[in-house]
Amino acid sequence: MKFAEFHVGQVIEAGPVQVTEEEVLSFARAWDPQWFHTDPAAAEEGPFQGLIASGWHTCAIAMRLIADTVLAGSESFASPGLNYVKWPKPVRPGDSLRLKAEVLAVRASRSGKALGILEWRWMLFNQNDAMVLDLEATSLFKLPG
C-alpha cells in the first residue's frame, strides 16, 4: 500500500497462517532456546502444559503478514520502534493465526524531511479468537517529491 492510502480508523486484515511444531522448534533453537520453546517433553510438564512459540517468533509471523499484505510495493523503509508489545496468550503448534492491524495516526513528519509517519496497532488472533499478540508500531514512509 502507498502511504496516501492509509487513514485513521482503517482496519487491515491478513492471514491465516498455520504454526507448525517444526517452525516453533527451529525458530526457538536458533533465537530463543528456552526449554519451553525447544523441549516438547519438558514443556508438557511445565507451566504452559505444552510447547509454546517464542514471543519473538509470534512477532516475526505478524511482520511477515504485514510485509506481504501491506508493505510490499510501498514507500516503507524503516521503523523507529514499538510503543509496546504484549503476548496475552501463548502460541502453540497447530494454531492458525490471523492479523488485524488498525491505523491510529497518519501524518507528515514535522522535521521538514519528506517522511510519512504511520502509527498502528497490530493484533494477532488464534483460531479461537484469543489475542496472542498486541503491539503498537511506528512506521516511516518516504514521501514522493
From TrEMBL:
<dbReference type="InterPro" id="IPR002539">
    <property type="entry name" value="MaoC-like_dom"/>
</dbReference>
<feature type="domain" description="MaoC-like">
    <location>
        <begin position="8"/>
        <end position="110"/>
    </location>
</feature>
<dbReference type="Pfam" id="PF01575">
    <property type="entry name" value="MaoC_dehydratas"/>
</dbReference>
<dbReference type="InterPro" id="IPR052342">
    <property type="entry name" value="MCH/BMMD"/>
</dbReference>
<protein>
    <submittedName>
        <fullName>MaoC family dehydratase</fullName>
    </submittedName>
</protein>
<dbReference type="InterPro" id="IPR029069">
    <property type="entry name" value="HotDog_dom_sf"/>
</dbReference>
